[in-house]
Write a structure and sequence with these properties.
This protein is an alpha/beta fold. It has helices at residues 20-34, 48-61, 74-83, 115-131, 163-171, 198-202, 229-238, 265-279, 295-303, 315-325, 348-361, 366-372, 398-405, 434-452; strands spanning 10-13, 37-42, 65-71, 87-91, 100-106, 154-155, 182-186, 206-210, 242-246, 253-257, 262-263, 286-290, 307-311, 329-331, 337-339, 379-385, 412-418, 424-431. Helix content is 36%, strand content 20%. It is globular and about 55 Å long.
Length: 453
């Protein structure tokens, strides 16, 4: 199987779809496009060390050098790239199960890749992959073994290697900003297990940590931002003021208020946008979101006279809009939040600190703040599995979407798009009346199955 770039790098089943050969070829191609200096990080998956070794070998083969940061969050890798004027690679499959893995690439300075740069790297990587001979030392999965590649790069695993990232997060708010707060943090048995809780402790919070015992196969397993149930229970059981759940590589955050209720990315962005607008931090009085943000978010921002810019799905498109227009805040409903004056990518730990700082300075509870920031419009999401990946499967439903949308007015909206990583058509319908949203979504799913399968 040949892996192509999806929404954010390449991702697949480790050693079967994402092989060490692919990692090696990506390393070679990335150096040719992004330059010779790299930093490399990984989350806690058991496949991470092998993929890191192969990628660094590819970097070395192309004449580059790489510093291996070991297990660190994605935003830490992006920070190190900016700090060291280097390109970067993060080996992680984010919220996916342990048996998947992925490789995200950053341009020098820790910036997301443009479509053009990504296409250039993909073209070179595929050419190397095609020309690579795997006949002499193949594993049972048809891929080279990590031991086939020479050791490459330099090791930089001491605390001083990434302590600057922790310092940046702590310095983003006032000293002791979280003093007196009691919080629960869920590290998803992932990349934040070691570093993630530290900024909150340094800022004065009393911290209870769960999901911080990675063993290579338990990342995201019943914990983290996609499985917040345990966090919700722990917040209530301990009487905490808030809970924070990261995903496997800690670039996204889902919060929990003191009542145990979820506070998703839209509400987090809404709370930050309102606070930043009031304190002069929200540049151009604008927040950037993707098309997946709830209609209720748009209504809430309009009521507060805050402008909203929408982009395609993926935090790299949010970052591009932030940089193009000089905005300071953006993110996704899924919990990727970019505080552009402080970071080049989504950072769950930094976002958590910023959010709790807002809560700590308020005279109302977290639950009251989160509840009042917006009224969520009922949203129905369905996936239609396709026989293969298609460039524009939604084109088959253009007339159906137009007919339904014409009856919605300002009370709802429809979004149909192809998945960036899987052969799926994603259908989202929002409407003030949940029965209408469900009926229209079901109708579009049926039409998609009829026309595309």
């Amino acid at each position: 199987m040949v892996l192509r770039f999806g929404t954010d790098g390449v991702r697949g089943k480790a050693h079967e779809e994402l092989t060490v050969t692919i990692a090696y070829c990506l390393g070679r191609a990335a150096v040719e496009v992004l330059g010779p200096n790299f930093v490399v990080g990984s989350d806690t998956r058991e496949s991470g060390p092998d993929l890191a070794k192969a990628l660094i070998a590819g970097v070395s083969m192309a004449g580059g050098t790489a510093q291996n940061l070991g297990v660190v969050p994605t935003p830490t890798v992006a920070w190190a790239a900016a700090d060291r004027s280097a390109a970067a690679a993060m080996i992680s499959a984010s919220h996916n199960p342990y048996y998947d893995n992925g490789i995200k690439l950053f341009a020098p300075g820790g910036l997301k890749l443009s479509d053009e740069v990504e296409a250039d790297i993909e073209h070179r990587y595929l050419a190397y992959l095609q020309s690579t001979t795997e006949s002499t030392t193949e594993s049972t999965t048809g891929s080279r073994l990590a031991s086939d590649f020479p050791s490459g790069g330099t090791s930089d695993l001491s605390p001083n290697g990434v302590e600057g990232w922790v310092d940046l997060v702590v310095a983003s708010v006032a000293a002791d900003a979280l003093a007196g707060m009691s919080i629960v943090i869920d590290c998803a048995h992932g990349a934040a297990s070691k570093l993630g809780p530290e900024p909150f402790r340094r800022l004065g919070a009393t911290v209870t940590v769960i999901g911080d015992s990675p063993n290579g196969t338990n990342i995201n397993d019943g914990v983290g931002s996609t499985h917040p149930e345990l966090l919700m229970e722990q917040v209530v059981a301990t009487g905490a003021d808030a809970g924070l759940a990261f995903d496997g590589d800690a670039d996204r955050l889902i919060a929990v208020d003191e009542s145990g209720s979820i506070v998703d990315g839209d509400r987090v962005l809404g709370l930050l946008a309102l606070d930043w607008a009031a304190t002069g931090r929200l540049k151009h009085n604008t927040v950037v979101v993707t098309v997946m943000s709830n209609l209720g978010f748009h209504r809430a921002m309009a009521a507060a006279d805050i402008d909203v810019v929408s982009t395609g799905v993926g935090d790299r498109y949010v970052l591009a809009a932030l940089d193009e227009h000089g905005y300071s805040l953006g993110g996704e409903q899924s919990g990727h939040v970019i505080c552009r004056d402080l970071s080049t990518t989504g950072d769950g730990v930094l976002t958590g600190v910023q959010l709790l700082d807002v809560v700590a300075r308020s005279s109302t509870s977290f639950a009251e703040m989160a509840s009042s920031v917006m009224t969520t419009v009922p949203q129905i999401l369905e996936n239609v599995r396709l026989p293969r990946r298609m460039d524009d499967p939604g084109a088959a439903l253009v007339d159906d979407i137009a007919a339904a949308s014409s009856q919605f007015g300002d009370d709802g909206r429809i979004l149909v798009r192809a998945s960036g990583t899987e052969p799926l058509l994603r259908i989202m319908v929002e409407h003030l009346d949940p029965a209408i949203a469900r009926s229209v979504c079901d109708d579009l799913v049926a039409k998609a199955q009829q026309k595309l399968i």
